[in-house]
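PROTOCOL LOG
Step 1. Enter all chains and additional molecules of the complex.
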Amino acid sequence: MTNDTSTGTVSAPKPAALEEKLEEQAFKLSAWMANQGIFIFTAALILFAAVFIDGFVSLPNITDVFNRAAPIGIVAAGMTFVVISGNYLDLSVVAQVATAGVVLIAVSNETSIPVAMLVAVVIALAYGLVNGVAVGVFKANAVIVTLSTTFIGLGLLRWATGGSIYFGPSDGAIRAFGATRIGPLPLAMILFVVVTLILSFVLTRTTFGFMVRSFGSNREATRLSGVSTPWVVIGAFTVTSLAAMLGGFVLAAFSNTAVSAMSDGYDFRALAAIIVGGTSVFGGRGSVLRTLLGVVFVSVLTNIMVLSGLGFGIQQMAIGLLIVLAVSVDALARKATGA
Amino acid sequence: MNVPDRDAAVGSQPADDRVGGDDHPAPIIEGRNIVKRFGGAVAVDDVSIAVSPGEIHGLLGENGAGKSTLMRVLAGVLAPNEGAVWVEGRKLDPGDTRAALDAGVSLVHQELSLVPEMTVAENILLGSTPSRSGFINTREQKRIAAEALEEIGVSVDLDEPIARLSVALRQFVEIARAIARKPQVLILDEPTATLTPAETTYLLDMLQRLAGRGLAIIYISHRIPEIFAICNRVTVLRDGRHVTTVDIEDTTPEGVVEFMVGRDLQLELETHRVDPDIGEVVLSARGLRAPGVNDIDLDVRAGEIVGLGGLVGAGRTELVRAMIGADIRTAGETTITRDGITKRIASYRSAVAGGVAYIPEERRTDGLALSMPVVDNITLPNRHALSRAHVLQSRKIVDFAKHLAEVVNLRPPEIHRNVGQYSGGNQQKVVLAKWLGREPEVIILDEPTRGVDVGAKAEIHRLIRELADNGAAVLVVSSDLPELLELSDTIHVVRDGRIVGTLLRDQADETSVMALASGQTKVDAP
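Step 2. Run joint prediction.
Step 3. Record the structure below.
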């Protein structure tokens, strides 16, 4: 992919005033930032941490950072589909992650883990279908729809559990999954990487992923090319829901407990990772691998702040600031590419 | 450009012999030597126009002749690249809409610009809402709105939301809005496009009344009878240039049409297809109705190029979209026949599956994913052929896209470059390439060369002819008359959502198509 617009038959530059030239430079810079920024910044941040932060460079710390990032990373990888399809985000991942976690532990306590997983899959498909039909078929706004399904889902969960905490058996497979390592690598972290690779393949190499990207870039042109666009939207939401379910499993396995409030903030943290990675909130542009980098960036940044003794409030502020910056760069970059 | 001799110009009039006239009082508004460019394209090229109080001045020209652009310059919506607008002998700041309004120039837009959720009174005072320290003075708002409506003789409930009004009433509210600003110059851009004959008559009477009170009116319309019914003078533009300004008594409808289309025909000598091999009906519509489409029967045969002529807004785009199911139909049926089997087109997707390719009017919004590379755009309609078990075959895709880029002569042929970075002509070639890969049996092209440079235009024409020569049924919508005449084996002219005339290749010329399209054959005032 090239950023060079000065060659070939592409429209010749007109004589421009100084002001326009400066604006053009700002556009070019933001286009570059949106495309390449995350690679440079992640590398720089890791380098900075390695040099200045005591305790950052150690195998336990680094694997711990990645391992902790696994649940949010899996959710974000899935939600990338909804964002790239041009439907902003799926807020209901908050309800979905908690539901999957509670179902995994509560249902398996009564029956078995496979049954619990099956129930969770059915719930995930239902979420994907409801969100997808409302947005894809009825053309409702994704933010409002998923905000509503969050309320419905969390309400249902709180009503069913009465807000109680569920504990898995201390010698059970769920706890074992959360604690197992293969060599130095935690199982959850491996799952995170595997899910990312699979979803990346689906998005870049399959006809479904292709239609998601194309729909996000121009939905009318995609429809007029003979694509059944409602199914593309339903598919994107379903991928997100299945990933949210997996994220819920991993999160529950970490502590061997589950509660309806376990996933607070997952909607926004997932979005932060996606946007910081350089996936466009306007749809069409981005990738699952970028989301992986975004997760790494946000996790390392948080880790640096923790190791530096900065409190949760400061961490939250920093991430908010980061999103404003990333979204502004994205908007400028969109103008610059003329899309 | 034959203008009778005249006395010396009056007052501040420019030394331009096309402007003004002996019988006319000093102009209130003048555009002097206006030039307006968009990028490289010149939309208005050194045009002068002057209109006096009490005069209704008709502005005519084909689609794209520069009429709307010129009016938007006069109203200060656009800043001209050269030239200036003078009102009452004072030069206006270029592109300052506020200044133009204050000087008394009001433009009634071609597209309705009302806010549907707001009331009639709120809309009439939109942008000049009377207020006292931030609070809206509702009584004053209603008073001014009522006054404006009274002036044009239209009665409508001031508290009614615009959304509940008919299209015609909205058009009148739009005019009331212009009148509420107490203009000296009123510019109307095709105000009757959406009106019935009775409503049109009412509007024309109203304009004559307003002119009688000393208002200067500039009236754009494609409907030549209207021009002859109310205008004192008429200016004709062609390809952005001034062709003539004449008193209405000194010309005839036929004369005006000739001024509009009279280009150097020998320059356009591209060859027609010789003895096209036309087969059976492939695409067929019977009793088709849809919003803007009235009871259409239409057949397109294998190997035939059928052209749809008409004015912008005549319903051609709606017609082709309803035919292939891209938009809803309210009645009627369309079928596609392949290998002797006739199938109903139930949905747009079934049309595409049945071998239809649709090249929409708006390539940037409907035809292409601009932020994606050429190769992805070409892959989209061909994804099934280019994948195995839903996994895309990258190497096959690249070969496929490269081949098609070559067929349509994409320049430069860089398939990994984003489509948005290409020129209009090349973008249109990509839209064609998308569909050529499917070897379609029916191709529908809506304004296939709008905004395309001359070279690319010839190449696109060549491709369209080749498709027909290879047996495809081709349906072309074009407002570009030479293009329509050159490509089509049969031309249907559409007006008000109906086919009002059918011309075979040897019967059709610019005048006959234009006459049918503008309803000029129906004689006299509406």
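Step 4. Note key features.
Chain A has 13 helices and four strands.
The interface with chain B takes residues 1-2, 5, 8-12, 14, 205-208, 210-211, 213-214, 217-218, 220-228, 284-285, 334, 337-339 of chain A (CB under 8 Å).
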